[in-house]
Amino acid sequence: MANSQCTVTLQDEVDILQSFGDLEPILNVGGQTSRVILTAANNVMNAVCAVQFPWKWNEFNCPQFYTNSLQQDYSVVNPDGTSLTNLAWLERGIVIDVNNTAEPKPFRLVETGRELSQATGTVFNGGNANSPMFLVNWLTNNLLYYGTWGKNNTGSPSTGNNPGPGSVFINPLGASVLFAAWSSTAGGQITFSLNYIPNSVTVGSSLVVMGVTPITYNNSYNVVSISGNNAVVTAVVNPGIYDAGGVIGNATSNSMPNNPITQIRDANGNLLLLTQYGTEGLTAPTAPPNATPGTKINRVDATTEWTVLDPFGQGFRIMPVPVQTGLLWQFSLVGQMKPVRFTSVNQTLAPLWDEFEPHFQMGLIAQLYRFSPLKAIYAKHEPAWQHWLRSLQEFRSKEDREMEENVFVPDRGIMGGTAGRNRFMGPWWPFNYPTR
Question: Exposed e or buried b for every residue in 310-327, given b needs 16+ CB within 10 A?
Fold first, then answer.
């Protein structure tokens, strides 16, 4: 999607800078205008992103992931199936009790860091609501832990929880109602369209519907047929026209199910991530050697789907390690992107917004002086670069005017005493604990 705040292109910068008498020969040396400006632009963008500051224009939401039984490491893929590769560093995050029926859903804080060691389990005191529920850091996929399909959970190098023949992966997300409609068929029936059919819902079983508007749909029904993600139930009385909402109260996956590990290393050394829940067959998912990341693996005897990961893509390690069953937590993390790589003068400066373009242009001028073969012109580089560094501080200050900058922080309370680490303020807090 094009960024409406980013319209200035590198060619626009070239057109401006060529009007500078001492820069024009640098830009046009050997007819390599694009090579020179691209090199300068990449140097400037890297310098901007190297500043220890969370630029809002460079933030992005990482792919969400969900806790799984006894699993500490989590590879992720983007919605298009590609591996995450553009994360520079993590800023902040929360975990959401995603299957909770309360509105709004309960959440807890996440503290992001640089490194966490591998662990098989953790005894963890959750503290209070101000404390971080989890610690998280990113690692390249090849440094994360993976299970081995069919390997014994004991007496092997594996830490356990391996999938194997017939293993069932239960969708951890609570089943929700997408649409519903009543008909007079067979004395009265309702067809509920769900986001998926839970394992606990079968023909002849009950379907417990809650949270629908209008409330006349909220009831326990007998399931008479299932087709795809549509469940047909008996309902003599017409409940009216469906409006919105609804969850399935008897879905066994309303809490975190006891699933095997959702990422494995196959027989050819490929790293695979489960991308569709279901039941494993009798044969292990295997991709050809050095398979292309994003390749989907489906088997005739299995309803699961696995996706090949880029070994140098990025995933996450969390602490504490989740227990076998319990609350399902959705990780929603925010990070800074890697510096964009300019490859064409037709590119805009995106993700950099147009309002910051003058600061970027000053960096380009300083970089271009550095490329001059003439001593007198080259000598302008260092003063221009220092001038740009001052401009970079102004650049930073444009985004650094939030209210938390305007506070006094006392060393202790009026009555003395201290507070412990559990008065968590987040990684942005610049002062030592205690905070109050």
Answer: bbebbbbbbbbbbeeeeb
Torsion on CA atoms 372, 341, 290, 71, rounded to nearest 10: 130
pLDDT 10s per residue in the chain (436 long)?
678 889 999 999 999 999 998 998 888 876 666 899 999 999 999 999 998 888 999 999 999 999 999 999 999 999 999 999 999 999 999 999 988 877 788 999 899 888 888 877 655 444 555 567 889 999 999 999 999 999 988 776 667 789 999 998 888 887 889 999 999 999 999 999 998 888 778 999 999 998 899 999 999 999 999 998 899 999 999 999 999 888 888 765 557 888 999 999 999 999 999 998 888 999 999 999 999 999 999 999 998 999 999 999 999 999 988 988 888 999 999 999 999 999 999 999 999 999 999 999 999 999 999 999 899 999 999 999 999 988 888 888 777 665 554 445 555 555 555 444 445 555 555 555 444 4
- Give residue 212's identity as a one-letter amino acid code: V
CA–CA dist 20, 299 (Å, integer): 63
Give the start-to-end residue ranges of the domains of the chain. Answer: 10-53+341-398, 68-169+256-327, 177-250
Rounded to a whole number, what is the largest CA-CA distance in the chain?
A: 93
* Vertex 413: Cα angle to 410 and 419 (nearest 5): 100
Q: Work out the angle at residue 130's Cα, subtended by the Cα atoms of residues 125 and 136, and round it to the nearest 5 degrees.
A: 65
According to DSSP, the β-strands at 177-183 and 296-298 are unpaired
Reduced to 3 states (helix: H, G, I; strand: E, B; else coil), residue 109 is strand
Please state the pTM of the whole predicted model. Answer: 0.79
Handedness of CA 350, 354, 356, 362 (dihedral sign): positive
Decide if 57 contacts 337 (C-beta within 8 A): no
Which structure tokens are listed for 70? 């006894």
Q: CA 341 to CA 298: how far, in whole Å? A: 35
Report CA-CA distances (Å) from 313 to 74, 141, 310, 330: 12, 6, 5, 21
